[in-house]
DNA sequence: GGGCGCTGTCATCTG
DNA sequence: CTCAGATGACAGCGC
């Protein structure tokens, strides 16, 4: 168990270091809790802030500092200290860096000794040596007792003890940790109203942990207590942990100088996590963290550097297949957002991506590499897509703006001849037609990135017009363009990028009037499409509003029917009450023994069960609706002749 | 011939 | 300031 803790902790440390070196900190506890989003701490400068984790707040308060968790100075301080400790730990594998591995909660012996003291990892950096020594001492001290639970501030993990007798305690602790997570969830809304013990356990510093775990507040061990499913899944990952650790450690030592290649598409890794079921033998358990380098992506996973992580919890596979039919068990606890954030970081070195991997990706992907899942973005890539036959050789849109390549082509033009037309052929809308079928937006067509049904319609019409070109169907602007002798159509002038349009006018030696004409043609063409979109949008809005009106009309009719039914029911109840009142009043007698006249008196039932006989006033209505009853009550204060309870007897007719 | 719908165009505003 | 887009208003055209 000592080795297990050692390897496990070191694995977490090294993985955390690797993430920290690229500016990312992952709060694994967030995944285990299944509630919080993962903590991503990026090196965003002094203004960077911790997000979505309460432990930073606890960490801040643990050291006795009431500092706002988003304090930039605090952020910088903790980040620097953490990185320093991580680097130190990297050079000394035998040590347990306090800051990274966080505190470790040991089982408290029954004799109440101090062996189970949690480690104060939130202390000052000066205490690091002492803490490390404490780690070692406690490791030695607790080896024979069994290491029951390891709770990390940054990575909450647990491992059941090998000793069967202590399993119940561990389960209790595990459940306490689970409850602690639940409390943290609840506490986000109301921090000061949660149960004290769990809150203290969650928020406590190491000293508080000691008190809690060593005191009687710890619930007694429960036998037969079931672990939550996610903990069971998690613990099942360690079945063959001891056999896996030596190999991983040897691999780690061998590949430590170059542990991880950054030539990995983390986006791809995010999508393809958990593919181990397909590529691994059944005997090889899926690691929880698996950071697989690109260079070793085609090799045996066990030989990968990521596999060197003793307790690999992630699965960062660079070339994993996408048919994830059986994702890793712990993979479900990982939020994809962490990979999103990792991807958002500029890892650089993208130009060093293994060509083999790129080939594999091209082979795996049916869609173009740059094509976005959203159909709206496919136009840009399609306009310069290698799939386009005409674009495969020319470089019209090879740059990001899509203009540089064209400009170089245009600058080489010496006349309004076929060379210029050839240069513009690449962004011809004909090439775009086959890539924008799926677009349904209203955006105005633009050769760069706009996608629109009207754009498609216009292109389609353009293509059809090219096929069925008849002079009399040409628009006025089209004829004007042809009169200028330009090798472009009005449609092309309208839809080409503005950079290209400006360069076109500069390169064609046009006069002022011709420039104005081209500008007008372009403006009118764009406005025409905009008007079409606007009208279609307006029509859709009208249709939508009509649908809403119909729905509201139906709802109004239903409410009217309901009101009618309610009024009828109320009327019937009032009638029954009136009948009952007459019956009751007929049984009562006044102080002279005369029966009460229902014409002059009425019954009033209060909410507390009291039934009062009240004289009818002139304004009182026999129907005794709610409002009139209230007025009647107020108007008969002190006039009630009798106060009757349910004990009124029929025999005497008098109130008890 | 007038009404209506569609379309193109202009002017203006906004981002 | 320029550009693109949105939109109201107007005019032309066909039914």
Automatic annotation (TrEMBL):
Keyword Magnesium belongs to the record: no
Task: Show the coiled coil region(s).
Answer: none
Q: Which InterPro entries match?
A: bZIP, bZIP_Maf, NFE2-like, TF_DNA-bd_sf
- Ranges of Acidic residues compositional bias? 361-374
Q: Where is the BZIP domain?
A: 517-580
Keywords attached to this entry: Activator, DNA-binding, Nucleus, Transcription, Transcription regulation
Positions of region (Disordered):
114-198, 272-307, 356-410
Q: Where is the composition biased (Basic and acidic residues)?
A: 132-143
Is Thylakoid one of the keywords UniProt gives this record?
no
Q: Which CDD domains match?
A: bZIP_NFE2-like
**Cellular compartments per GO CC:** nucleus
Bias (Low complexity): 375-395
Question: What GO MF annotations does this protein's record show?
Answer: DNA-binding transcription factor activity, RNA polymerase II-specific; RNA polymerase II cis-regulatory region sequence-specific DNA binding
**Bias (Polar residues):** 150-159, 281-306
Per the record, the similarity remark reads:
Belongs to the bZIP family. CNC subfamily.
Q: What's the name of the protein?
A: Nfe2 like bZIP transcription factor 3
């Amino acid at each position: 168990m000592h080795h297990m803790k050692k390897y496990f902790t070191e694995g977490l440390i090294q993985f955390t270091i690797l993430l920290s070196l690229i500016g990312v900190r992952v709060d694994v506890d967030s995944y285990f809790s299944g509630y919080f989003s993962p903590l991503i701490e990026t090196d965003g400068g002094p203004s960077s802030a911790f997000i979505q984790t309460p432990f930073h707040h606890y960490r801040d308060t643990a050291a006795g500092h009431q500092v706002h968790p988003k304090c930039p100075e605090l952020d910088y301080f903790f980040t620097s200290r953490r990185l320093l400790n991580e680097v130190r730990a990297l050079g000394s594998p035998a040590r347990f860096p306090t800051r990274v591995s966080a505190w470790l909660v040991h089982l408290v012996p029954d004799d109440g000794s101090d062996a189970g003291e949690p480690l104060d990892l939130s202390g000052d950096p000066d205490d690091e040596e002492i803490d490390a020594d404490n780690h070692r001492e406690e490791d030695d001290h607790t080896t024979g007792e069994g290491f029951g639970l390891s709770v990390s501030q940054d990575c909450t993990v647990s491992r059941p003890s090998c000793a069967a007798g202590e399993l119940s305690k561990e389960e209790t602790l595990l459940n306490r940790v689970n409850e602690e997570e639940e409390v943290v969830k609840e506490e986000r809304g109301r921090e000061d109203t949660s149960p004290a013990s769990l809150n203290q356990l969650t928020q406590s510093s190491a000293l508080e942990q000691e008190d809690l775990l060593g005191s009687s507040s710890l619930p007694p061990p429960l036998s037969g207590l079931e672990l939550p499913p996610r903990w069971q899944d998690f613990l099942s990952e360690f079945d063959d942990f001891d056999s896996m650790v030596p190999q991983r450690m040897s691999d780690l030592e061998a590949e430590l100088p170059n542990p991880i290649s950054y030539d990995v598409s983390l986006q791809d890794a995010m999508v393809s996590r958990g593919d181990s079921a397909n590529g691994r033998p059944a005997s090889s358990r899926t690691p929880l963290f698996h950071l697989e380098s690109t260079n070793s992506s085609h090799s045996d996973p066990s030989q990968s550097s990521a596999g060197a992580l003793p307790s690999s919890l992630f699965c960062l596979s660079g070339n994993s297949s996408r048919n994830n039919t059986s994702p890793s068990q712990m993979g479900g606890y990982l939020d994809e957002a962490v990979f999103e954030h990792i991807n958002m970081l500029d890892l650089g070195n993208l130009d060093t991506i293994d060509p083999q991997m790129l080939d594999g990706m091209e082979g795996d992907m049916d869609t173009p590499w740059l094509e976005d899942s959203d159909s709206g973005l496919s136009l840009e890539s399609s306009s310069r897509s290698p799939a386009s036959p005409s674009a495969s050789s020319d470089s019209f849109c090879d740059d990001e703006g899509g203009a540089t390549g064209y400009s170089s082509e245009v600058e080489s033009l010496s006349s309004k001849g076929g060379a210029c037309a050839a240069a513009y052929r690449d962004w011809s809308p004909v090439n775009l037609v086959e890539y924008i079928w799926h677009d349904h937006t209203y955006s105005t067509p633009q050769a760069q990135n706009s996608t629109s049904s009207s754009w498609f319609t216009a292109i389609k019409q353009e293509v059809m017009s090219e096929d069925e070109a008849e002079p009399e169907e040409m628009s006025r602007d089209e004829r004007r363009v042809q009169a200028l002798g330009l090798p472009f159509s009005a449609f092309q002038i309208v839809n080409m990028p503005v950079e290209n349009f400006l360069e076109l006018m500069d390169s064609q030696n046009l006069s002022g009037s011709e420039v104005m004409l081209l500008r007008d043609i372009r403006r009118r063409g764009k406005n025409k499409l905009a008007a079409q979109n606007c009208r279609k949008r307006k029509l859709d809005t009208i249709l939508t509003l009509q649908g809403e009106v119909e729905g509201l009309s139906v709802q109004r009719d239903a409410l009217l029917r309901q009101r009618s039914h309610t009024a009828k029911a109320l009327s019937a109840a009032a009638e029954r009450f009136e009948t009952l009142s007459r019956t009751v009043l007929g049984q009562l007698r006044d102080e002279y023994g005369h029966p009460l006249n229902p014409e002059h008196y009425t019954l009033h039932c209060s909410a507390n069960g009291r039934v009062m006989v009240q004289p009818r006033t002139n304004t009182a209505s026999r129907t005794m609706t709610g409002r009139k009853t209230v007025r009647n009550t107020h108007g008969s204060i002190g006039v009630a002749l009798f106060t009757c309870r349910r004990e009124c007897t029929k025999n005497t007719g008098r109130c008890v």
